[in-house]
Amino acid sequence: MRVTISRKAHFNAAHRLYRKDWTSEKNNAVFGKCNNPNFHGHNYGLTVSVTGKIDPETGFVLDVKVLADIILEEVEIPFDHKNLNLDVPEFQDLNPTAENIAVVIWNKIRKRIQPDFDLEIVLNETDRNFVTYKGE
């Protein structure tokens, strides 16, 4: 019997969408107002879901407190109230689009979750725009 548990979190962060190897004109054409040189921010919503077998001893798939601590350590502390382009090493050479942020978060959490568990990340950039990543 496989069951999915989920935990919601949020963080606030600034970013700029642009490529260093493109001209200003091309960056503006592709990324528009998200290419603002002074950055812009979002109140990101995050849902992390873990699917696995229920442990017969505990009755848990994974203790939600453990999942909350992983999210805090891997996402909230390193990303909250940060400039993703400048303050978060994973984005020094990676454009911090919602898609790339979701993959980075998935990779950070994946290393802390048992390999036989499935992991899904849903990252809300706005109330209407979100990205889902389940791994390769």
What keyword list fits this structure?
136 residues; alpha+beta; five-stranded mixed beta sheet; 30% helix; elongated
Structural commentary:
The protein is an alpha+beta fold. The protein has a single domain (1-12, 40-131), classed as 2-Layer Sandwich (Tetrahydropterin Synthase, Chain A), CATH 3.30.479.10. It is built from 4 helices and 5 strands, in the order E-H-E-H-E-H-H-E-E. The radius of gyration is 17 Å and the shape is elongated. The mean pLDDT is 97.
What's the CATH C level?
A: Alpha Beta
Instruction: Assess the beta-strand content as a share of residues.
Output: 25-35%
Q: Order of SSEs, N→C?
A: EHEHEHHEE
Strand order of the largest sheet: 3-1-2-4-5
The low-pLDDT segments are none
Q: Which class best fits the helix and strand makeup?
A: alpha+beta
Count of helices?
A: 4
Total strands: 5
Largest β sheet strand count, sense and barrel closure: 5 strands, mixed
CATH superfamily annotation: 6-pyruvoyl tetrahydropterin synthase/QueD
Q: Radius of gyration in whole Å, from Cα?
A: 17 Å
Q: How far is the first residue's CA from the last residue's CA?
A: 24 Å
Number of domains: 1
Let me know the average pLDDT: 97
Shape: elongated
Corresponding CATH architecture:
2-Layer Sandwich
The name CATH uses for the topology is Tetrahydropterin Synthase, Chain A
Helix content: 25-40%
Binding site for Zn(2+): 15, 40, 42
Active site: 34 (proton acceptor), 81 (charge relay system), 125 (charge relay system)
GO molecular function: 6-carboxytetrahydropterin synthase activity; metal ion binding
Pathway: Purine metabolism; 7-cyano-7-deazaguanine biosynthesis
